[in-house]
Every structure is written in structure tokens, then in C-alpha cells.
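stuck on this chain:
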Amino acid sequence: MKWSAPAVGLVLAIALVGCTPAVEASDQPTPAPSASASTPAELVPGSTLDRSAVTAAVPEGATLSVVMPSDAGEEESAALAAMQDAAARHGAAVQVHADADPVAAVTAALADRPDAIVGIGPALVGVLDRASAANLDVSFLLLGTQLAEPTGNVIAVTWPGAEERAVFADDPASFTGAAAYAGEALEVGLAGFASGLDGHVIALD
């Protein structure tokens, strides 16, 4: 994924290549961190962060491929409408894939080569879990649900009524409040990528 703020950039590329200058022969080596040092909770992959951790602006002009159930219910449909409105405010291009076969929907989204694949609700969380683990060079944004063990290319944004952590979840009762929160969740998630928060869950409330 390539993000920067305020526009899409090369955050992931920088993270992979690194930007540490070469060490001169006369430089002293940097001491390794103490093995007994505890890792701050906010740095643990998969941990839940408050939205105040998002420091970057929402990137403009992103390309997004949305995957959702072909038989989307009221909440999924409300989420799609809200996120499309939010995407339009930031000049994002949105392609929606809603196939009866969720694997086909995700495969089509991957073929788009978007800046991020966006999953709405818990219905497709199982296939998105497998796809995100198998495509570490692709950014995945989950709205209203979260993975049990997310890889470093996933951001999940949750809100009250839509925060279940599960690998295979398909309970409509675990996804509510979409009309009120999904647009904001999209903006926070995209800004989360620009803030370098890949691999975390961001809670709106």
C-alpha cells in the first residue's frame, strides 16, 4: 500500500526499504534493545487504538475496491452509501464487488490493484482474513468488524454496535450503527494508513 498525507504516497515502500543512512566505519553500533524491555500496548500488532492515534489527514484521490455480500442487508447498504459519500468528499474512486461467491468478490477486488480493499461488516471477514494474509503487499480496511489475528497490512475501524473480533463471523446483530459511523470509519481508516497504523484496530468511541 502506498500512502502519505495529505495525498497518496510511498509510506509502505519507505517502511520496507528503510531510510536509515549507511553507518560509517567509524560509527559506533547502536545497542540492541533490552530483551526485558516491555513493548508499549500501542505498538502491539492487532491492539486497539483510540482515534486520537490517527495524526495524518485523509489522503485524497485514493482508489478503493469494496467487497460486500451480494444479498446485502439494511446495515451493509447503509454502510456502502455512507462510505461512498465520504469517498466522494476526498476524491476517491470506488469500485464495488458484491458476488454470491465471496472468494470471487475478493479476487475481483485484488485484480483492481486498488490503494485499499475495503470490507463492510462481518459477513466476509473469513475470506478477507485469508486474502489479507496471502497478499501482504495489499492494504485491507475493515469497517465494523476486526480480525482475530490481523497481519500488518490490515486496519480495522470499529464503533459501538460493530466491533466484534472474529475470524468467521456472520451474525447481523454484530453489525449495527452503519449509517451513523461508516463514512467516518472510512476516513479514519484511510488516515490511519497515512499515519502508519497498519496492523491495528481503531475504535471510534
Q: What stands out?
A: The longest helix spans residues 178-194. Strands lie at 48-50, 63-67, 93-97, 116-120, 140-143, 154-158, 201-203. Confidence is low (pLDDT under 50) at residues 5-41.
